[in-house]
């Protein structure tokens, strides 16, 4: 039963001698990432509490810019970091623990691209709608009141 | 015996089932496709959570203030610590699982047995922790008043710590005195068989009002998040007014109807998402146990392949993967 494993992670920066060693290496990496998340979550540095960029004002290009840089404009840097670190963790769990790295390209794309596309679409639709409902509830002439 | 990694005599032929188009066996590929569909279910739940949160973005509970408990450390505010521990346990059991898969590739029955066992233990610790987390959440800690409009009003006072003034929560039990009441819980046996009600709160709104009036240090905190990212604290006068004019129900803990931490949607999503995930972990543990016994009985040894361990491993890692996201979107962001 010769099972081939690709033993390189970080684009070949780290190469492990055996599959077992790679597993422990990935565990160490995931633990460090989780520790960073927890420390940031407890201390919540003030520097990371306000968005790095202010929205662009103006015409079509400004709107386009706001969409492209939406992660930096509308999101607290802290939350952006959390989400990025989560995706990093998800990548290493899928690629090394679930051995996605060793599957054929076609299987990998079938699974990953389908899920990523549909999830991004769903998140975009629902969050957009949620923000819209918030605006409806909170304009000056809103017909709904809940401050009693 | 050879049900999953069978030699059907069709190897090398284009049709007949012996072909492996993506170099993955039928079972493994189907497990991957199941995982994709399950991932979409979970993302549906998490996106719905995001939708509701964006809808009430200025009054959503702050997770750090809700999940502050650690077993055996009573009365200490330790946000995140226990959930971080749970996350680590699950990642750790993922590691033992992948080690079991690796040992399976080397046909090492003893090692597969040990690692499968450790994985099951890890899963059990996680499910147990989640049960404890639920129990703490349901029980609640400070108690609050719900207004006519369904908003939650909490109590606290300004305390000075090393020159820094901080708002600290006060539990209802610390300033409210329960009086003798005529009102008893309505049960099915004492009236119509189809109508009953839940446990009555320890205090009535009138008693809370009295307690608030007699303690001049206590202020009311609303759900609204201010510019500093903290919940708004009302002035003394406003506090009494709010409780007197709008207070309707004393809330202790959380369930699907009321939630002392803030909007009841938060509790609903908490129960639903962590519950659905916990159910996945539970079924994962059950499947792991079945595979564990198969390993001990030597089923896979005789079959000549430990691919079953690999397949259940995929499911187990997926459960871990989902938790990574639940952790981020429920506890961190």
TrEMBL record, chain A:
Q: How does it sit in the membrane?
A: Multi-pass membrane protein
Which keywords does the record carry? Cell membrane, Membrane, Transmembrane, Transmembrane helix
Report the locations given in the UniProt record: Cell membrane
Its source organism is Winogradskyella immobilis
Task: Kindly give the InterPro entries that the UniProt entry links to this protein.
Answer: Cyt_c_oxidase_su4_prok
Give the main localization category: membrane
Which regions span the lipid bilayer? Answer: 23-43, 55-74, 110-127
Task: Cite the Pfam families for this sequence.
Answer: COX4_pro
Presence of the UniProt keyword Membrane in the record:
yes
> What is the name of the protein in this document?
Cytochrome C oxidase subunit IV family protein
Q: Would you say which domain of life the source belongs to?
A: Bacteria
Automatic annotation (TrEMBL), chain B:
The domain of life is Bacteria
Q: Which residues form the Heme-copper oxidase subunit III family profile domain?
A: 1-333
Q: Where are the transmembrane segments?
A: 30-51, 80-100, 112-132, 269-300, 312-332
Provide this UniProt record's keywords sorted from A to Z: Cell membrane, Membrane, Transmembrane, Transmembrane helix
State the coiled-coil residue ranges: none
Localization (cell):
Cell membrane
SUPFAM superfamilies (UniProt xref): Cytochrome c oxidase subunit III-like (SSF81452)
Query: Do you know which InterPro entries this protein is assigned to?
Result: Cyt_c/ubiquinol_Oxase_su3, Cyt_c_oxidase-like_su3, Cyt_c_oxidase_su3-like_sf, Cyt_c_oxidase_su3_a-hlx
Task: Tell whether Transmembrane is among the UniProt keywords.
Answer: yes
What membrane topology is given? Answer: Multi-pass membrane protein
Which family would the database say this protein is a member of? Answer: Belongs to the cytochrome c oxidase subunit 3 family.
Annotated PANTHER family:
CYTOCHROME BO(3) UBIQUINOL OXIDASE SUBUNIT 3, CYTOCHROME C OXIDASE SUBUNIT III
This protein's name:
Cytochrome c oxidase subunit 3
Q: Which organism is it from?
A: Winogradskyella immobilis
Print the organism lineage.
Bacteria, Pseudomonadati, Bacteroidota, Flavobacteriia, Flavobacteriales
């Amino acid at each position: 039963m010769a099972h081939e494993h690709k033993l390189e992670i970080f684009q070949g920066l780290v190469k492990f001698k055996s599959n077992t060693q790679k597993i422990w290496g990935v565990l160490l990496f995931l633990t460090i990432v989780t520790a960073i998340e927890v420390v940031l979550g407890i201390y919540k540095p003030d520097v990371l509490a306000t968005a790095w960029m202010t929205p662009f004002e103006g015409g079509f290009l400004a709107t386009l810019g706001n969409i492209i840089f939406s992660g930096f404009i509308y999101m607290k840097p802290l939350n952006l970091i959390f989400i990025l670190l989560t995706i990093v963790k998800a990548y290493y769990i899928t690629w090394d623990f679930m051995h996605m790295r060793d599957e054929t390209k076609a299987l990998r794309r079938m699974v990953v691209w389908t899920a990523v596309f549909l999830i991004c679409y769903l998140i975009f639709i629902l969050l957009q709608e949620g923000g819209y409902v918030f605006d409806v509830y909170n304009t000056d002439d809103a017909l709904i009141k809940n401050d009693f | 015996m050879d049900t999953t990694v069978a030699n059907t005599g069709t190897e090398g032929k284009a049709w007949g089932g012996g072909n492996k188009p993506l170099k993955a066996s039928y079972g493994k590929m189907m497990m991957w496709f199941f995982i994709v569909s399950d991932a979409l279910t979970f993302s549906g739940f998490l996106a719905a959570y995001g939708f509701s949160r964006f809808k009430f973005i200025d009054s959503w509970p702050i997770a750090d203030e809700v999940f502050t408990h650690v077993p055996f450390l009573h009365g200490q505010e330790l946000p995140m610590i226990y959930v971080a521990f749970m996350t680590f346990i699950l990642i750790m059991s993922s590691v033992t699982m992948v080690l079991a898969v690796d040992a399976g590739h080397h046909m090492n029955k003893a090692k597969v047995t040990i690692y499968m066992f450790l994985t099951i233990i890890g899963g059990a610790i996680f499910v147990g922790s989640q049960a404890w987390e639920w129990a703490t959440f349901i029980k609640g800690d400070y108690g609050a008043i719900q207004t006519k409009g369904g908003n939650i009003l909490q109590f606290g006072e300004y305390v000075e710590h090393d020159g820094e003034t901080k708002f600290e929560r006060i539990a209802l039990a610390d300033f409210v005195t329960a009086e003798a009441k005529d009102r008893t819980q309505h049960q099915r046996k004492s009236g119509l068989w189809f109508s009953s009600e839940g446990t009555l709160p320890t205090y009535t709104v009138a008693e809370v009002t009295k307690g608030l009036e007699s303690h001049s240090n206590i202020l009311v905190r609303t759900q609204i998040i201010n510019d500093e990212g903290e919940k708004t604290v009302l002035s003394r006068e406003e506090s009494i007014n709010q409780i007197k004019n709008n207070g309707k129900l004393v809330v202790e803990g959380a369930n699907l109807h009321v939630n002392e931490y803030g909007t009841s949607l938060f509790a609903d999503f908490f129960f639903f998402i962590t519950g659905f995930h916990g159910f996945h972990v539970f079924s994962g543990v059950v499947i792991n146990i079945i595979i564990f016994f198969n390993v001990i009985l030597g089923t896979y040894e005789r079959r000549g392949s430990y691919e079953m361990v690999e397949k259940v491993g995929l499911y187990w890692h997926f459960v871990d993967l989902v938790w990574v996201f639940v952790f981020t979107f429920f506890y961190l962001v």
